[in-house]
Amino acid sequence: MVDAGNDGTGGVRHSSVPQPVEHLRRRGRPGVEIPLRTGGTARIGLPLSRRETFAGFLDADRYSTDLDLSISQPLLRNAGRRTNTHFIRIAAMDSQIAQARTKLEVIRQIAAVDRQYWLLHDAQRRLVVRQQQYEQAVGQLVVARARFAGGVSPEIDVYRAEAGVARRIAGLGSA
């Protein structure tokens, strides 16, 4: 091996033992990275590397090339506590929606019962009023008969009173 170093005499030094040279590594990584529709990436590469160990030997330099294929899909992209509890929050909101709908239906049923109660109350009051009107019409009929019997009023008053009682009986049926 020839070494062109400075030995102090200005000459060239010869050595029969190979001297180790510093390790040299050179790497290159040509390739293509393709984004996928799903958010992942596909990589195709051909990494090259060269390594020199000893100068002067043919087998000392090592070259390597490999085909490199990789697909990366982030399954838990943006993952964290909020992302992982998303479905729990949705279930809680669905539960609140169901409770609100149930409350709304209960309120509707109570309102319907309340309306029916007041309609029944109104019908009962109308019946009481019609019964009182019937009783008054019967009272007028008794008075009209008594007056006709006493000769104070004509017989037409009795017929009018009987017609009033008949109207009140028909009114009781519609109440």
Give an account of the 3D structure:
The protein has 175 residues and is α+β, with helices and mostly antiparallel strands. It has 2 domains: 61 residues, no CATH class; 73 residues, no CATH class. Helices cover 50% and strands 22% of the residues. It is built from 3 helices and 8 strands; from the N terminus they run ββββββββααα. The strands form 3 sheets. The protein has a 3-stranded antiparallel sheet with strand order 3-6-7, with no helix packed on it. Strands 4-5-8 form a 3-stranded antiparallel sheet, with no helix packed on it. The chain starts with a strand and ends with a helix.
Features:
2 domains, 50% helix, alpha+beta, 3 helices, 175 residues, 3-stranded antiparallel beta sheet
What layout of secondary structure does this protein have?
Blueprint: E1 2-3, E2 13-14, E3 20-28, E4 31-35, E5 41-45, E6 48-54, E7 62-65, E8 68-72, H1 81-84, H2 86-150, H3 156-174
Antiparallel strand pairs: 1-2, 3-6, 4-5, 5-8, 6-7
Helix pairs in contact: 2-3
Uncertain segments: 1-24
- Strand order, biggest sheet? 3-6-7
The string of secondary-structure elements, in order, is EEEEEEEEHHH
Shape descriptor: rod-shaped
Measured as a percent range, the helix fraction is 40-55%
- Count up the domains: 2
Give me the secondary-structure category. Answer: alpha+beta
Q: Which strand-content bin applies to the residues?
A: 15-25%
**First-last Cα distance:** 131 Å
Count of helical segments?
3
Beta strand count: 8
Mean pLDDT: 80
- What radius of gyration results from the CA coordinates? 56 Å
Major sheet summary line: 3 strands, antiparallel
